Amino acid sequence: MEVAIEKQSSRITQTSRRTPKTTVISLKSVEERENFDNQYEFLLTTIGFACGLGNIWRFPQRAYENGGSAFLFPYITCAILFGIPTVYIEFLAGQHQATSPPIVFRRIAPILEGIGWMTCAISTISAIYYSVIMAWCFVFIFNIFRGHLELWNNCDNPWNIREICVEMRSCSRNLTDLSENGNETEIAYNNNIENLIFFNGSCQIPPDLNSTKLISPTQEYFTNHILQRSDGFLNITGINWPILFSMTFCWILVGLLIFKGMRIMGKISYVTAIVPYILVIIFVIRGFFLPGSSNGLYLFLGRPDFKKLYSPRTWSEALKQLCFSISVGHGGLMSMASYNKRSSNPFQNAVILIVADTFMSILGVAVEHVVESGVNLIFVAFPESFSGHSAIWAVLFFAMLIILGIGSQMAFVELFCSCFYDQHPNFRHKKYLIVPIWCLILYIFGLIFSTSAGFYWFELFDKYSAGFSSTFAIIIEILCLIYIYGARNIKLDIEELIGQPKNKITQMIGAHSPYFIINWQIISPGIGLILIVFMCFEQKYLMVFDIFGWILAFIPLFMIPIFAWKNYRYFKINNYPIKGVLSIQRQHLSFSRICDIYSDAEFEEAMKLPEHEPWENPNQEENFENVE
């Protein structure tokens, strides 16, 4: 008994003599890390990041194609079963460790560091192509002030092809210039007045649609005038100078906005998160008073197709839309949570984010009145609806899209900067150097979007950049946190942040609920795997375009083996135990607590691990010895 007590006493002494020094250094870095000034700024920043363009241009079409208002049932179900738990665990991991995703996973096991860099790569790819969306919006706003609002809805412009251009004019009986065929024309007109369209400069009976592909003037305006599109993604015939100038301005703007770091982003979020909600509500109210608005709402609310709920595709589309909308697996949510105050409740923040995201998606349906999706919705259908109305509405609409895009773009760009600062602390106060260089690099990669083939490359990035890789990333994140770091440690981390449950109700349905452990162990990973299977089997034919797309989708995944090898080499070169790359590191903020349950042999092995991160100064330890 005395021997056992002596061993335990020696172990406690050793822990108190060695472990706290590393812990103090980590805690000191947490204290020096800038934070949001208050909880509202954190929430608004995450809402501005997650609730973006996907709510406006993707959700309406997904709803109309998959049962109308009935689509809300699978979407909300996925939000509860998958959305809240995944956002919760990302908030929890980032907030507890108060550092960027690569270090979060490196402290769990160095071999896992690449998971954090994988999420960073996903956000980087998204940042590259988000800039061109904002650039298109800026070009539209500039052209509105040039008087193009009344031009893009008719077929008499140099960019129109009159032989296929169909205007949305009303063919009244005043239009008698149907053709040069006299009586035959009059007879055709009298018998088919409801079927006439304004085509090729006059009201006519529609031509044979099997041999003639008709197109709206707004589609031609966007395709031929704004994009100046070539006939393939490998056919690069020149530079689109208006888009290039707009992209340049967008990157300068984003760089200036994130120049001061996360704290200034919290201030900017009052605009990027709140203003879009105000504007979209204004558009919804205005839409209620427009002719035909009741028809659009009836199609969505009055005719739910509950049969669609029996289709696996409907549930797959709901989950894909949710993943795209809330941006899980991008690393942004975890990174922003690392700047949040440690006393904040990550579960409540996750619920608020999901509610805000769902609300914005529903508003997107209410605004939408033409069954279109993607760029065709926001750059073709909406501009068509603005014709004949005040230009202020069109300007406000595109301004709203720019603000939504900036909210997401800033988080995408800042993520890499945060990861870089955390592993190169000496550059933390040199943002004037890092931010411009990183924005310039992304700008150069994005120059392909300013070419005549830019639209095709945009579609490639939009289709393949986030769906597969981000879903794979969130699955790996959850599995590593719940099975490698451990469910017990996650429970204790929750208690460290927000304390014990206040009552039995909060213990069962709140942040401490055992449901989340079960969800993270089985439900969320299972749902994510099912989605990945659907994505793979949806691909029936592989063209050159798709091959490029899948290469793009797999690029972030290579971060895992690259950084696993890097850390293996680090341990081998510095003569640390090789199996230490699979162990929780001494820099983990909960290491002192975790090693309490180690056996003596395990504890001795743990103490052989590096006391410092590779980028930390070993001499820094002496400076913090007396902090406690």
From TrEMBL:
Predominant localisation class: membrane
Compartments in which it is found: Membrane
Protein keywords: Disulfide bond, Membrane, Metal-binding, Sodium, Symport, Transmembrane, Transmembrane helix, Transport
InterPro entries from the UniProt entry: Na/ntran_symport (IPR000175), SNS_sf (IPR037272)
A GO cellular-component term linked to this record: plasma membrane
CDD domains, alphabetized: SLC6sbd
Transmembrane segments: 72-93, 114-142, 239-259, 268-289, 351-371, 391-421, 433-458, 464-485, 515-535, 547-565
Binding site for Na(+): G48, A50, N55, S325, L404, S408
SUPFAM superfamilies attached to this UniProt entry: SNF-like
Keyword NAD on entry: no
The keyword Membrane is assigned to this record: yes
Annotated membrane topology: Multi-pass membrane protein
Name the record gives this protein: Uncharacterized protein
Organism of this sequence: Caenorhabditis angaria
